Protein backbone atom coordinates (compact mmCIF):
# COMPACT_ATOMS: atom_id res chain seq x y z
CA UNK A 1 0.00 0.00 0.00
CA UNK A 2 1.02 3.60 -0.29
CA UNK A 3 3.12 5.40 2.29
CA UNK A 4 0.53 5.97 4.96
CA UNK A 5 -1.04 2.52 4.90
CA UNK A 6 -0.66 0.47 8.09
CA UNK A 7 -0.96 -1.76 6.70
CA UNK A 8 -3.95 -7.86 8.89
CA UNK A 9 -8.13 -27.30 15.76
CA UNK A 10 -4.67 -25.91 16.88
CA UNK A 11 -2.23 -28.49 18.03
CA UNK A 12 -0.55 -28.22 21.40
CA UNK A 13 3.22 -28.45 21.25
CA UNK A 14 5.51 -29.73 23.94
CA UNK A 15 7.68 -27.02 25.40
CA UNK A 16 7.75 -23.59 23.88
CA UNK A 17 7.80 -24.48 20.19
CA UNK A 18 6.03 -22.54 17.48
CA UNK A 19 3.58 -24.39 15.24
CA UNK A 20 1.15 -23.04 12.69
CA UNK A 21 -2.24 -23.88 11.27
CA UNK A 22 -4.80 -22.54 8.86
CA UNK A 23 -8.25 -21.68 10.19
CA UNK A 24 -10.75 -22.50 7.46
CA UNK A 25 -14.48 -21.85 7.26
CA UNK A 26 -15.38 -25.44 8.05
CA UNK A 27 -12.22 -27.37 8.69
CA UNK A 28 -8.61 -27.14 9.89
CA UNK A 29 -5.77 -27.92 7.54
CA UNK A 30 -2.86 -29.22 9.57
CA UNK A 31 0.63 -29.47 8.08
CA UNK A 32 2.67 -32.33 9.47
CA UNK A 33 6.46 -32.50 9.41
CA UNK A 34 7.62 -35.86 8.05
CA UNK A 35 11.17 -36.79 9.09
CA UNK A 36 13.62 -37.12 6.23
CA UNK A 37 15.12 -40.59 6.05
CA UNK A 38 18.50 -41.19 4.47
CA UNK A 39 18.53 -43.99 1.95
CA UNK A 40 21.54 -45.96 0.75
CA UNK A 41 21.98 -48.33 -2.16
CA UNK A 42 20.85 -46.12 -5.03
CA UNK A 43 22.00 -47.68 -8.26
CA UNK A 44 23.25 -45.62 -11.17
CA UNK A 45 19.87 -45.60 -12.91
CA UNK A 46 18.08 -44.26 -9.84
CA UNK A 47 20.72 -41.55 -9.49
CA UNK A 48 20.21 -40.36 -13.06
CA UNK A 49 16.42 -40.50 -12.68
CA UNK A 50 16.68 -38.32 -9.55
CA UNK A 51 18.79 -35.75 -11.38
CA UNK A 52 16.32 -35.79 -14.28
CA UNK A 53 13.38 -35.16 -11.94
CA UNK A 54 15.23 -32.25 -10.31
CA UNK A 55 15.87 -30.74 -13.73
CA UNK A 56 12.15 -30.99 -14.53
CA UNK A 57 11.03 -29.47 -11.24
CA UNK A 58 9.43 -26.02 -11.63
CA UNK A 59 11.53 -23.11 -10.38
CA UNK A 60 8.85 -21.87 -7.98
CA UNK A 61 6.63 -23.52 -5.37
CA UNK A 62 4.84 -20.46 -4.04
CA UNK A 63 3.61 -17.02 -5.13
CA UNK A 64 3.48 -14.48 -2.30
CA UNK A 65 1.33 -11.40 -2.96
CA UNK A 66 1.04 -8.06 -1.23
CA UNK A 67 -2.57 -6.86 -1.31
CA UNK A 68 -3.12 -3.09 -1.37
CA UNK A 69 -1.94 -1.27 -4.51
CA UNK A 70 -0.64 -4.61 -5.79
CA UNK A 71 -3.77 -6.64 -6.55
CA UNK A 72 -5.77 -3.49 -7.21
CA UNK A 73 -4.47 -0.14 -8.52
CA UNK A 74 -3.54 3.00 -6.62
CA UNK A 75 -6.18 4.83 -8.66
CA UNK A 76 -8.95 3.38 -6.47
CA UNK A 77 -8.18 6.11 -3.93
CA UNK A 78 -8.12 3.64 -1.04
CA UNK A 79 -4.55 4.54 -0.07
CA UNK A 80 -5.33 8.27 -0.03
CA UNK A 81 -8.42 7.70 2.11
CA UNK A 82 -6.38 5.53 4.48
CA UNK A 83 -3.77 8.26 4.93
CA UNK A 84 -6.49 10.80 5.77
CA UNK A 85 -8.05 8.40 8.28
CA UNK A 86 -4.68 7.83 9.96
CA UNK A 87 -4.16 11.56 10.31
CA UNK A 88 -7.64 11.97 11.79
CA UNK A 89 -6.93 9.18 14.26
CA UNK A 90 -3.72 10.88 15.37
CA UNK A 91 -5.61 14.11 16.03
CA UNK A 92 -8.87 12.77 17.47
CA UNK A 93 -7.61 9.78 19.46
CA UNK A 94 -4.01 10.63 20.34
CA UNK A 95 -4.29 14.40 20.69
CA UNK A 96 -1.48 15.17 18.25
CA UNK A 97 -1.40 18.68 16.77
CA UNK A 98 -2.57 18.53 13.16
CA UNK A 99 0.10 21.02 12.06
CA UNK A 100 2.94 18.56 12.74
CA UNK A 101 1.25 15.45 11.37
CA UNK A 102 2.61 15.63 7.79
CA UNK A 103 6.22 15.75 9.00
CA UNK A 104 5.63 13.34 11.87
CA UNK A 105 3.80 10.81 9.72
CA UNK A 106 6.51 10.92 7.07
CA UNK A 107 9.27 10.26 9.64
CA UNK A 108 7.32 7.43 11.27
CA UNK A 109 6.62 5.74 7.96
CA UNK A 110 10.19 6.05 6.70
CA UNK A 111 11.76 4.74 9.89
CA UNK A 112 9.28 2.11 11.05
CA UNK A 113 7.51 0.75 7.98
CA UNK A 114 4.04 1.93 8.97
CA UNK A 115 2.72 4.96 10.84
CA UNK A 116 1.13 2.60 13.36
CA UNK A 117 4.44 0.92 14.17
CA UNK A 118 6.09 4.33 14.48
CA UNK A 119 3.46 5.67 16.86
CA UNK A 120 3.97 2.68 19.16
CA UNK A 121 7.74 3.12 19.00
CA UNK A 122 7.74 6.75 20.14
CA UNK A 123 5.48 6.08 23.10
CA UNK A 124 1.82 6.09 22.09
CA UNK A 125 -0.30 3.14 23.20
CA UNK A 126 -3.71 2.26 21.79
CA UNK A 127 -5.96 -0.68 21.05
CA UNK A 128 -4.95 -2.27 17.76
CA UNK A 129 -8.46 -3.34 16.80
CA UNK A 130 -9.78 0.15 17.49
CA UNK A 131 -7.03 1.65 15.36
CA UNK A 132 -7.75 -0.66 12.43
CA UNK A 133 -11.49 -0.12 12.75
CA UNK A 134 -11.04 3.66 12.66
CA UNK A 135 -8.49 3.67 9.82
CA UNK A 136 -10.09 1.02 7.60
CA UNK A 137 -13.73 1.27 8.64
CA UNK A 138 -14.38 4.33 6.49
CA UNK A 139 -12.45 3.33 3.38
CA UNK A 140 -14.19 3.57 -0.02
CA UNK A 141 -14.31 -0.20 -0.63
CA UNK A 142 -16.90 0.41 -3.32
CA UNK A 143 -14.03 1.70 -5.48
CA UNK A 144 -12.49 -1.79 -5.53
CA UNK A 145 -14.22 -3.60 -8.38
CA UNK A 146 -14.42 -7.32 -9.18
CA UNK A 147 -11.49 -8.39 -11.35
CA UNK A 148 -12.40 -11.48 -13.40
CA UNK A 149 -9.22 -11.14 -15.50
CA UNK A 150 -6.98 -11.38 -12.43
CA UNK A 151 -9.14 -14.15 -11.02
CA UNK A 152 -8.64 -16.22 -14.16
CA UNK A 153 -4.88 -15.62 -14.08
CA UNK A 154 -4.62 -16.68 -10.45
CA UNK A 155 -6.76 -19.79 -10.78
CA UNK A 156 -4.62 -21.00 -13.66
CA UNK A 157 -1.35 -20.60 -11.75
CA UNK A 158 -0.44 -24.08 -10.42
CA UNK A 159 1.36 -22.94 -7.28
CA UNK A 160 0.66 -22.13 -3.66
CA UNK A 161 -0.68 -18.57 -3.55
CA UNK A 162 -0.61 -16.59 -0.29
CA UNK A 163 -1.38 -12.98 0.67
CA UNK A 164 1.19 -11.11 2.79
CA UNK A 165 -0.06 -7.73 4.02
CA UNK A 166 0.66 -5.33 6.87
CA UNK A 167 -3.09 -4.68 7.12
CA UNK A 168 -5.47 -6.43 9.50
CA UNK A 169 -7.48 -9.51 8.57
CA UNK A 170 -10.83 -7.68 8.36
CA UNK A 171 -9.49 -5.25 5.76
CA UNK A 172 -7.79 -8.03 3.81
CA UNK A 173 -10.97 -10.09 3.68
CA UNK A 174 -13.05 -7.10 2.54
CA UNK A 175 -10.62 -6.15 -0.21
CA UNK A 176 -10.34 -9.72 -1.51
CA UNK A 177 -14.11 -10.09 -1.44
CA UNK A 178 -14.57 -6.88 -3.43
CA UNK A 179 -12.06 -8.17 -6.00
CA UNK A 180 -13.82 -11.53 -6.18
CA UNK A 181 -10.60 -13.32 -5.22
CA UNK A 182 -11.49 -14.71 -1.81
CA UNK A 183 -11.09 -18.33 -2.97
CA UNK A 184 -7.91 -17.79 -4.99
CA UNK A 185 -5.47 -17.92 -2.07
CA UNK A 186 -4.43 -20.58 0.40
CA UNK A 187 -4.20 -18.10 3.26
CA UNK A 188 -3.44 -14.61 4.50
CA UNK A 189 -0.36 -13.48 6.42
CA UNK A 190 -1.62 -10.28 8.02
CA UNK A 191 -1.13 -7.94 11.00
CA UNK A 192 -2.62 -10.44 13.45
CA UNK A 193 -0.35 -13.23 12.15
CA UNK A 194 2.80 -11.37 13.12
CA UNK A 195 1.30 -9.54 16.13
CA UNK A 196 -0.94 -12.11 17.85
CA UNK A 197 -0.86 -10.23 21.15
CA UNK A 198 -0.53 -6.60 22.22
CA UNK A 199 3.08 -6.21 23.33
CA UNK A 200 3.85 -3.32 25.61
CA UNK A 201 7.60 -3.77 25.30
CA UNK A 202 10.02 -4.85 22.62
CA UNK A 203 11.45 -8.36 22.87
CA UNK A 204 13.78 -10.11 20.47
CA UNK A 205 12.88 -13.46 22.05
CA UNK A 206 9.79 -15.09 20.55
CA UNK A 207 9.43 -17.19 23.68
CA UNK A 208 9.74 -14.30 26.15
CA UNK A 209 8.22 -15.61 29.36
CA UNK A 210 6.10 -12.49 29.67
CA UNK A 211 4.09 -13.53 26.64
CA UNK A 212 4.27 -17.34 26.52
CA UNK A 213 0.88 -19.02 26.87
CA UNK A 214 -1.15 -15.84 26.49
CA UNK A 215 -3.86 -15.73 23.88
CA UNK A 216 -5.17 -12.44 22.55
CA UNK A 217 -8.23 -12.82 24.76
CA UNK A 218 -6.07 -13.13 27.88
CA UNK A 219 -4.13 -9.95 27.30
CA UNK A 220 -5.52 -7.09 29.40
CA UNK A 221 -7.42 -4.60 27.21
CA UNK A 222 -5.53 -1.48 26.25
CA UNK A 223 -6.87 2.01 26.07
CA UNK A 224 -6.03 4.85 23.73
CA UNK A 225 -3.46 6.68 25.80
CA UNK A 226 -0.10 8.31 25.36
CA UNK A 227 2.96 7.75 27.47
CA UNK A 228 4.13 10.52 29.80
CA UNK A 229 7.32 10.51 27.76
CA UNK A 230 6.82 10.73 24.02
CA UNK A 231 10.01 10.50 22.00
CA UNK A 232 10.29 13.66 19.88
CA UNK A 233 11.31 12.16 16.56
CA UNK A 234 11.00 15.50 14.76
CA UNK A 235 13.50 17.11 17.14
CA UNK A 236 15.71 14.03 16.85
CA UNK A 237 16.13 14.45 13.10
CA UNK A 238 16.43 18.23 13.40
CA UNK A 239 19.81 17.69 15.07
CA UNK A 240 22.88 17.78 12.85
CA UNK A 241 24.27 14.72 14.60
CA UNK A 242 21.59 12.97 16.69
CA UNK A 243 23.15 11.58 19.84
CA UNK A 244 20.35 9.21 20.83
CA UNK A 245 19.13 6.09 19.08
CA UNK A 246 15.63 5.71 17.73
CA UNK A 247 13.38 3.65 20.02
CA UNK A 248 12.29 0.24 18.77
CA UNK A 249 8.70 -0.66 17.96
CA UNK A 250 6.91 -3.68 19.43
CA UNK A 251 4.99 -4.07 16.15
CA UNK A 252 6.28 -6.60 13.61
CA UNK A 253 5.69 -5.58 9.99
CA UNK A 254 7.21 -5.18 6.54
CA UNK A 255 9.79 -4.00 5.53
CA UNK A 256 11.55 -5.54 8.53
CA UNK A 257 13.59 -8.52 7.35
CA UNK A 258 12.80 -10.23 10.65
CA UNK A 259 9.07 -9.77 9.95
CA UNK A 260 9.39 -11.28 6.47
CA UNK A 261 11.42 -14.21 7.78
CA UNK A 262 8.86 -14.81 10.53
CA UNK A 263 6.01 -14.81 7.99
CA UNK A 264 7.86 -17.27 5.77
CA UNK A 265 8.48 -19.56 8.71
CA UNK A 266 4.84 -19.48 9.81
CA UNK A 267 3.58 -20.38 6.33
CA UNK A 268 6.36 -22.92 5.69
CA UNK A 269 7.61 -21.02 2.62
CA UNK A 270 11.03 -21.55 1.05
CA UNK A 271 12.15 -18.05 -0.06
CA UNK A 272 14.45 -19.45 -2.73
CA UNK A 273 11.46 -21.05 -4.45
CA UNK A 274 9.03 -18.16 -4.03
CA UNK A 275 8.03 -15.16 -6.14
CA UNK A 276 7.16 -12.08 -4.06
CA UNK A 277 4.83 -9.48 -5.64
CA UNK A 278 4.89 -5.99 -4.08
CA UNK A 279 4.26 -2.34 -4.98
CA UNK A 280 6.70 -1.05 -2.33
CA UNK A 281 10.33 -0.71 -3.42
CA UNK A 282 11.70 -1.04 0.10
CA UNK A 283 9.57 -4.14 0.76
CA UNK A 284 10.89 -5.62 -2.47
CA UNK A 285 14.46 -4.89 -1.43
CA UNK A 286 13.93 -6.39 2.02
CA UNK A 287 12.38 -9.46 0.43
CA UNK A 288 15.36 -9.81 -1.88
CA UNK A 289 17.74 -9.67 1.08
CA UNK A 290 16.01 -12.64 2.72
CA UNK A 291 16.25 -14.68 -0.48
CA UNK A 292 12.90 -14.15 -2.24
CA UNK A 293 12.57 -13.75 -5.99
CA UNK A 294 10.92 -10.36 -6.43
CA UNK A 295 8.37 -8.70 -8.71
CA UNK A 296 7.78 -4.95 -8.40
CA UNK A 297 4.19 -4.09 -9.32
CA UNK A 298 3.02 -0.66 -10.50
CA UNK A 299 5.88 0.26 -12.80
CA UNK A 300 7.68 -1.30 -15.75
CA UNK A 301 11.00 0.12 -14.52
CA UNK A 302 13.09 -2.34 -12.56
CA UNK A 303 14.90 -1.06 -9.49
CA UNK A 304 17.65 -2.52 -7.35
CA UNK A 305 16.30 -5.63 -5.65
CA UNK A 306 13.56 -6.31 -8.21
CA UNK A 307 14.00 -9.32 -10.50
CA UNK A 308 10.95 -8.32 -12.55
CA UNK A 309 8.75 -5.22 -12.89
CA UNK A 310 5.08 -5.10 -13.94
CA UNK A 311 3.12 -1.99 -14.85
CA UNK A 312 0.04 -3.89 -13.69
CA UNK A 313 -0.60 -7.26 -12.10
CA UNK A 314 -2.57 -7.98 -15.27
CA UNK A 315 0.75 -8.13 -17.17
CA UNK A 316 1.69 -11.26 -15.26
CA UNK A 317 1.43 -13.71 -18.16
CA UNK A 318 3.40 -11.55 -20.56
CA UNK A 319 6.19 -10.80 -18.10
CA UNK A 320 6.47 -14.28 -16.56
CA UNK A 321 5.30 -16.82 -19.17
CA UNK A 322 7.37 -19.54 -17.49
CA UNK A 323 4.80 -19.66 -14.69
CA UNK A 324 2.37 -21.27 -17.11
CA UNK A 325 4.90 -23.64 -18.67
CA UNK A 326 5.16 -25.88 -15.63
CA UNK A 327 3.53 -29.25 -16.24
CA UNK A 328 1.26 -29.07 -13.23
CA UNK A 329 -2.46 -29.18 -12.60
CA UNK A 330 -4.16 -25.89 -13.37
CA UNK A 331 -7.31 -24.27 -11.96
CA UNK A 332 -5.96 -24.17 -8.42
CA UNK A 333 -8.63 -22.69 -6.17
CA UNK A 334 -9.45 -23.02 -2.49
CA UNK A 335 -12.91 -23.93 -1.18
CA UNK A 336 -14.74 -21.62 1.19
CA UNK A 337 -13.28 -18.51 2.75
CA UNK A 338 -9.61 -17.71 2.58
CA UNK A 339 -7.64 -18.79 5.63
CA UNK A 340 -5.82 -16.55 8.05
CA UNK A 341 -2.47 -18.02 8.98
CA UNK A 342 -1.84 -17.90 12.69
CA UNK A 343 1.22 -18.59 14.78
CA UNK A 344 0.63 -20.39 18.04
CA UNK A 345 3.03 -20.50 20.97
CA UNK A 346 2.36 -23.22 23.50
Taking the sheet with the most strands, its summary is: 9 strands, mixed
Work out the strand percent: 5-15%
Terminal residue distance: 33 Å
The amount of helix comes to 25-40%
- Tell me, briefly, the overall form: globular
- Rg computed from alpha carbons, rounded to a whole number of angstroms: 21 Å
Name the poorly predicted regions. Answer: 8-47, 203-226, 342-346
The tally of helices reads: 12
Strand tally, please?
Answer: 11
Order of helices and strands: EEHEHHHEHHEHEHEHHEHEEHE
Structural class assignment: alpha/beta
Please, what is the average pLDDT? 80
Description of the molecule:
- The chain is α/β, with parallel strands linked by helices.
- Helices cover about 30% and strands about 15% of the residues.
- It is built from 12 helices and 11 strands.
- It has a 9-stranded mixed sheet with strand order 2-1-11-6-5-3-8-9-10.
- Strand 5, helix 7 (about 170-180) and strand 6 form a beta-alpha-beta unit.
- The longest helix has 15 residues, at about 80-90.
- The protein is globular and about 60 Å long.
- The protein starts with 17 loop residues before the first strand and ends with a strand.
In short:
The chain is of the alpha/beta class. The chain is built from twelve helices and eleven strands.
Keywords:
two-stranded antiparallel sheet; 32% helix; globular; alpha/beta; 346 residues; disordered C terminus
How do the helices and strands line up, and which of them pair or pack?
Blueprint: E1 18-23, E2 28-29, H1 44-56, E3 62-65, H2 78-92, H3 101-112, H4 115-121, E4 124-125, H5 128-137, H6 148-155, E5 160-164, H7 169-179, E6 187-189, H8 191-194, E7 225-226, H9 233-238, H10 257-266, E8 274-278, H11 281-289, E9 293-297, E10 308-310, H12 316-319, E11 339-345
Helix pairs in contact: 2-5, 3-4
